Task: structure prediction
Amino acid sequence: MSNKGGSNLNDTKANSSTKIEPSNAQPEIKQDNVLTLEKSIVDKLVSEFGDKIKIAYVKPLRVRVEVDSSDVIKVASFIKETLLFDHAESVAGTDYPKGNYIEVVYHLGSYTRDELAAHVLALATRTSRDNSSLPSLVNIYKSVEYHERETFEMLGVYFEGHPRNDRFLLPEDWADIPPMRKEFRIKGR
Amino acid sequence: MSTEFSNETLEKNSNNTGLQIVKESEEDRLMTLSVGPQHPGSGHFRFTVKVDGDYIVHCDPDPGYVHRGEEKMCEYRNFIQNIPHLERPVIHDSNNITYSYSLAVEELTNIQVPRRGQYIRAIASELNRQVYTLYWLAIYGIFLGHSTMFMWPTGDRELFIDLLEMLTGARVTHAFNIPGGVRNDMPVGFSEKCLRQISYFEKRLVEYENIFYNNPLMRQRTEGVGLLTKEDAIKLGVTGSVLRASNTPYDIRKAEPYDVYNEIDFKVQYMKSCDCFARAYVPFLDMKESCYIMRQLIDKIPQSGEVRAKLQPNPKGPAGEAYRRVESGRGALGYYIISDGTPKPYRVKISVGSFRNMLALPHLLVGAKLADMPAIYWALNYWPVEADR
Amino acid sequence: MLKDLINPTNFNVLVGKLGDVLVKALDQPLGYAINWGRIWSLWPVHLETACCSVEFGAASGPRYDVERFGIIEAFGSLRQCDLVVVQGTVTRKMAPRLRMVYDQMPDPKYVIAMGACAITGGLYIDSYNVLPGVDGIIPVDVYVPGCPPRPETLIQGTMLLQEKIKRSKIG
Ligand code: SF4
Result:
């Protein structure tokens, strides 16, 4: 991870998730597979990339992997080709002004491998707030095309290699800062 | 003067006057059409298509006419206050869009839902699936010029709305699912009324099939139109009925059963023909299956018990994140919620089926005939308000 | 002299003048007849702005059937319409389009603001992309409150509008 300091929110997240784990909302599923599949996914990733990736948590059916923005293409292709997570469900950008970074999370799912149907792998990467740009995954996952375009206009993260970093949902004459940045305050709040 | 009007003189003159002669090119043959937002067949959505004669060669969706900044608004309200405005994107499927929100908040704040509450949730969710699909079907009927198919589903939809009104107190905006369960218990006599309505509706479904799906005109307009192969469907990451029409049996209710769905016996409905007809027929099969599910739910529901867990006034949990999905009328509907330990979410991302299915629109329209556009567009199970959020 | 009078350009003016005179003379009965014609054939524009359109659709369904009150189902071309039902939230992106649609319609034209969002911005009053009420861009005749209004409320709103048209003066 690019340690831009002040990532305390993220650290508490990792700790607390282990605390939540025993009383998860879905005990039925948890009992019959004791995170074996999740562990095997993590093992494969770790054996391939070593310390380039950081496993933030392993919860039932959910794995979160954090990578540096320079490795995201390599990791994503590995996830697609070897682990067979074949489509992206959502791309969520989050602004952390305290740590001066923007985090983009890709939620990847699988239609082709039946045993992975319930699993979602969250691939997280970061960029700085001032000069936000990330490599685009559109050549690996075609399904992120509109999601990345939305992230560009909502957070101002430029995706290198994306065919259109362009306005999408906002009005044509939008002249303010991107609205999902935290310093953008909505009326009267 | 007109006698000397040849290309050569024009060229000479144009050099003097600054006029340019445009040679005819490929581009000149193309015409750009803007479909929407004021168009009977677009709803709150606009896309531009370039046509070469009858064929569409380029398509560019332009959503955002109903972009109301739901995700930003979430950051200013606490977990409970967020429910009413989060259901507005699909008011005719509001129990499903608040379902996954409640699941995610429950995971974050560590709340357990009582059994009876889970069953009532599932019943409300299935009823709402019918309401949504009937509305979708009504509009599809209009799109194909089949007015009967507008009138029948809108009429039958009201009966389901009556049931939901009896259960929740509102016609379409229920705000019924809350973190921790549902707002109130079933009223007396609800199950009987529900069962009666289901048996009536199952009879109606047969008539729908006869008048609409077996109609030769409808079949001609949809069969073999807009082929979306399995590989493409997976590559584009489409979801819901569009995915299941492309020979991929994937349903969140089966893949990742939430609440009580792992105790219910049902089949994932899918078709192999990958065309518009399949995309129109899978929701119909879903409605049938939904009736079957509802009978079981009413049969198995615990006769008494709490319907919601006790909440603190301002529920909050430790910092963390949750991503939960349900199967809505338009496919997987996921909420990604990050909490920083305060009663207000730090970030809410709504991953909606409509937004994901939009990617298939240019893919299907390019190469299709202009006359097939309505059939292809609405079969994508696309609800613009939801896609814009 | 006579030639001047009946050449094609003047002819229209002449007929228009004649119409004016007639309207003045027959103000009461004719006005009543024209208004009567208007109130039973209101054509709404097919412009949906947000989620209230679901209830608008339900209102033209068989149970509520607004057609019996003279609101014809929204399928006319813009140039034949005389009613805009603003079906909910007007976002900043939709606002210029709504105004353009309104401007293109021939007179007389009426506007119903349907839903809390169209009246004040409603639930989305503090959103960054929503107009606080549609009456900032087009003149509104009838406000129909609710979120969404029930179809009965919409029907009552249109009946109010018909009442208003019935009492309006011609010319
Ligand atoms: S008034 Fe309510 S239902 Fe109507 S557009 Fe606004 S939020 Fe949607």
Summary: The mean pLDDT of chain A is 77. The helical segments of chain A are 8-20, 27-32, 36-49, 72-81, 145-155. Chain A touches chain B through 48 residues (CB under 8 Å).
